[in-house]
Write a structure and sequence with these properties.
Strand order of the largest sheet: 1-2
Bound molecules: iron/sulfur cluster
Low-confidence stretches: none
Shape: elongated
Helix content: 10-25%
Distance between the termini: 16 Å
Number of strands: 2
CATH architecture of the domain at 29-96: 2-Layer Sandwich
Number of helices: 2
Length: 100
Amino acid sequence: MAAPDAIECWQDLALGCSIEKPGNSCDFQTGDWRTGQKPVTDREECIKCGLCYILCPDAAYAPADEEGYHDWLDFYCKGCGICAAECPKDAIAMVEEVAS
Ligand code: SF4
Ligand code: SF4
């Protein structure tokens, strides 16, 4: 996914830094802030409960696909590890990320 032009210079912001465009958090590539680890799901263990999708604070899992799995979204994941900690089947492992 290409990074949108979400960052604005402070001189361009509205007085009081009020938000003029609802839903603009979708534009921010919070995955850029991730350092070290990313979650990887073992689909053999996943029971499609959706907890990772519900509990992720950054909406970094997509809604269930036609098979019931939730795809991980690199663009938003900050690598906090909540999904791995809360998965009832331990189907998510936090793995070291190799810098590209
Ligand atoms: S929390 Fe675990 S078992 Fe539930 S959908 Fe996510 S990966 Fe699958
Ligand atoms: S590591 Fe954190 S931000 Fe990334 S998908 Fe899991 S819960 Fe969401």
